[in-house]
Design a protein that fits this description.
single chain; alpha+beta; eight-stranded antiparallel sheet; four-stranded mixed sheet; 15 strands; 13% strand; elongated; disordered N terminus; multifunctional enzyme; magnesium; HD/PDEase_dom; ACT-like_dom_sf
Length: 824
């Protein structure tokens, strides 16, 4: 039977004919989705029009209007009918009331839910002005029957009111959406989601239509219509499967709904729902950000014009990283950025955004996704460092990661991510999908980076620990294989790859052993020690265990579990204590280092050289070299203040220190004798650092040397210059990093005391450390500085002025003072 036949039967047979035609339509297996919703709306339109026409004979100035979802023509099998009987006030009130009864009662008789009202245009506008939900419904008003001019007049007036009142109503709408999200949760993570009310559901999609109708801002259109359609299709199937007007996708109904939609199983159903919800949620984030920016500019612009004498001020652009700037509270690409020639740009932009606590511009993400060049295999060092920086940024990582994922950049970077993306976890303990759980684990791990010597390995293992889910068998075993491949691809060396694989393989070992085995049994402790293998891996595994549990949900971690795991770690650490590393051997100086040292010794002043470090791409050794950074070699006659002076000069020139080695080099007696220097004067400090420009080009070596000479003789106020530069740039909120941690290493050198510093990397950090050590009247004999993502992990071998290790109490006092200084 055709749609025309169904409508004719409904018109000929009255309510019973409509009911039969409606039932037949819903039972048609060949028609579903938008065609069925449109046909059901059309069938209902014809029936209600017939009811109106039969009761409105002789009446003028009256119309029947569909509003809300029915107004949009989106009738699910059990949807409410939202109707407005509009009249201009000229008709007899009793006649209007009788007409309303002629329409409402047949609807109720069929058991259909009805949301109805009878109003004049003035009453409708007044109610809309008082009730935001009424106004949203009227934005979708659609004429059914009666006076078309009356309906058109109301639609025009309501839209005009909405646009005029948008600066006031849109913040109300945003608050309404936020309150609903707080109550209902996020659709993209819930095991039993409300398809309409949860964040990312149908209500949010309707809110985006309302924002677009205001002409103030518009939602990203790409994928939005398909996402809305998918959730509506699921709701249709849910109504048919349950026979009820429900929007709650309960566990016991998911298999039946999946079958109704022709899907493989309930997990496939949930994944499709999550993907659709993610599109709507991301579009909501972008749209509300745009609304806020527009409203803010409208409030500020008149005052600026008054002060500037007219004209539109150019937006302020503040540099964040190479090719990345901040503008209007978002991270955008610099005008000179070339994503088609800069494969690291997406990660650099993401890391800069997360570290600044700012969102990535939609335009920037789409531009990078469209033009991004694939990273070589293995990744260049900068790409790996930027990924670690992004993962270590705490809570802002989530929003930035979602922006990259919305445009497919994550699966471009990490193809294995596709299997865990939007994958549900049917476990009451887990509150997130697999992919979001991995990001949440990285967020939790970022708070624990001060506890480990390799924060980069902790953060990457957090990202990968459940990467095996979605593969057959034990996800830890499958994950170990994937983690080896991913870690090698992103550029870790063999030792680090093995450590990451072990962390993924054993990420459940500590908590399962601590809660299920007898810790008093030496065999239990030995088995864990054999699996872990080293103190460093144990330290990382302990932090990963805690981060994983905290990211799972409130039921997965407790003080009791934490104490059991800590006890196990202590016992395993005692077994592994024999593996404690000795002080590393100092390598002999290279010919270039020795040449610079001799020149510094002869001239009595600093000398330096800058040399770019490159390697050919792994896939094409004959291709364009990949930059590793710039090697900066500095030789300075031994004197106080070298470390803070060099670090301060580099910070002034916006050079980021990735790694640094400082050591005293005693020149051969033959060199000293030839220059008539005494042996005590024959020591030269040699600094071998890898640096990179924050943005822009590198400074000239001659300029660096001139500033270093002034810094050492005291004529250059480094602290003042750094303070002036910071004051010249607007203060960004940035991330809240874990506080710095300074300790005295329990296993160190026999010739020096080892002070370990773990802190958030920031411009001038090394200068502040060096100055604090100088103020403590200790001598830095050597230093080993590394920046892993945004985390600085530094070791300073210090002595007293006479060259002896510091006594225990004095060393602890130096560490406390340095930590207090860094926390200021």
């Amino acid at each position: 039977m055709t749609s025309t036949d169904v409508r004719t039967e409904a018109e000929d047979s009255g309510p019973s004919g409509y009911a039969a035609a409606r039932l037949r339509l819903l039972q048609e297996g060949a028609r579903s989705g938008p065609p069925r919703r449109a046909a059901l709306a059309e069938l209902t339109d014809d029936w209600l029009t017939g009811l109106f026409d039969a009761g409105a004979e002789g009446l003028r100035g009256v119309s029947l209007i569909a509003v809300g979802g029915y107004g949009r023509g989106e009738l699910s099998p059990r949807s409410d009918l939202d109707l407005l009987l509009l009249h201009d006030g000229s008709a007899d009130p009793d006649a209007v009331a009788a007409l309303a009864d002629r329409i409402w009662y047949p609807v109720w008789d069929l058991g259909l839910a009805l949301d109805h009202s009878v109003r004049t245009p003035a009453e409708a506008r007044k109610t809309a002005g008082e009730d935001l939900k009424v106004q949203l419904g009227l934005l979708d008003a659609r004429h059914l029957a009666g006076d078309l001019g009356l309906t058109a007049g109301l639609r025009t007036a309501v839209l005009a009111d909405w646009r005029n009142q948008a600066p006031k109503r849109l913040p109300e709408l945003q608050e309404l959406c936020a309150e609903r999200a707080e109550r209902q949760g996020e659709l993209q993570y819930l095991l039993e989601p409300d398809l309409k009310e949860a964040r990312g559901g149908l209500r949010d999609a309707t809110a985006l239509r309302a924002v677009a109708a205001s002409w103030l801002a518009d939602a990203p259109r790409e994928g939005l219509a398909d996402a809305r359609k998918r959730i509506l299709d699921v709701r249709d199937a849910l109504h048919l499967a349950t026979g009820r007007a429900t929007d709650r996708l309960s566990l016991q109904e998911q298999d039946q709904v999946a079958a109704e939609l022709g899907l493989l199983d309930a997990d496939t159903l949930l994944r499709q729902v999550y993907e659709a919800a993610r599109v709507i949620s991301y579009a909501s984030d972008v749209t509300w950000r745009e609304v806020g920016r527009v409203l803010k500019s409208r409030a500020v612009r008149p005052r600026l014009r008054a002060m500037l004498g007219g004209g539109k001020p150019a937006p302020e652009r503040s540099p964040l990283a190479e090719g990345v700037v901040e503008q209007d509270g978002e991270v955008v690409l610099a005008r000179a950025a070339r994503p088609d020639r800069d494969p690291v740009l997406p990660l650099r932009a993401a890391a800069a955004a997360a570290q600044s606590g700012l969102p990535l511009s939609l335009h920037a993400v789409r531009r990078m996704a469209a033009a991004a060049r694939p990273l070589p295999t293995p990744w260049p060092a900068e790409a790996r460092e930027q990924l670690v920086t992004l993962l270590g940024s705490g809570r802002p990582t989530v929003e930035v990661w979602e922006a990259l994922e919305a445009e497919g950049l994550i699966t471009q970077l990490l193809p294995d991510w596709e299997r865990v993306r939007c994958r549900p976890q049917r476990n009451a303990v887990h509150i997130w999908t697999v992919d979001r759980h991995l990001i949440e684990t990285a967020v939790q791990a970022s708070e624990l980076t001060r506890r480990v010597g390799r924060p980069d390995l902790l953060l990457v293992s957090a990202l990968l620990h459940d990467i095996g889910k979605g593969w057959p068998g034990d996800h830890s075993v499958a994950g170990e294989i994937i983690a080896r491949d991913v870690a090698a691809r992103i550029g870790f060396d063999r030792t680090d790859v093995a450590t990451l694989a072990a962390l993924v393989r054993h990420h459940l070992l500590l908590v399962e052993t601590a809660t299920r085995r007898d810790l008093e049994d030496p065999a239990t402790v030995r088995s864990v020690a054999e699996a872990v293998g080293s103190q460093g891996t144990l330290e990382l595994l302990h932090a990963l265990t805690e981060a994983d549990a905290l990211a799972t949900g409130p039921a997965a971690w407790s003080s009791w579990r934490a104490s059991l795991v800590a006890d196990l770690v202590k016992r395993v650490s005692a077994v592994l204590a024999g593996d404690a590393p000795e002080e590393p051997e100092t390598a002999a100086p290279t010919a270039e280092q020795e040449r610079l040292a001799i020149e510094a010794f002869r001239t009595g002043s600093p000398v330096l050289s800058l040399r770019a470090q490159t390697e050919p791409p792994a896939e094409d050794p004959s291709g364009e070299p990949e930059p590793l950074g710039v090697e900066l070699l500095i030789a300075v006659p031994d004197q106080p203040g070298v470390l803070p002076a060099v670090a301060g000069v580099l910070a002034m020139h916006r050079l980021t220190v990735r790694t640094a080695e400082l050591r005293a080099l005693d020149l051969p007696d033959s060199v000293q004798d030839s220059e008539n220097f005494s042996p005590s004067e024959g020591s030269v400090l040699l600094l071998d650092w890898r640096v990179a420009a924050e943005y822009g080009s590198l400074p000239q070596a001659a300029r660096l040397r001139a500033d270093l000479v002034r810094a050492l003789d005291g004529s250059l106020d480094i602290a003042g210059r750094l303070a002036e530069r910071d004051a010249a740039y607007p203060r960004r909120r940035g991330i809240i990093a874990p506080p710095p941690r300074v300790t005295v290493a329990s296993v160190g050198s026999r010739r020096a005391t080892v002070i370990e510093v773990r802190a958030h990397d920031a411009p001038g950090l090394l200068h502040r450390i060096g100055r604090a050590l100088e103020d403590a009247n200790v001598r830095v004999r050597s230093a080993h500085v590394s920046t892993l993502g945004a985390n600085a992990v530094d070791a300073f071998y210090v002595t007293d002025p006479e060259g002896a290790p510091l006594p225990g109490e004095e060393a602890a006092a130096v560490a406390r003072t340095l930590e207090e200084t860094l926390r200021e």
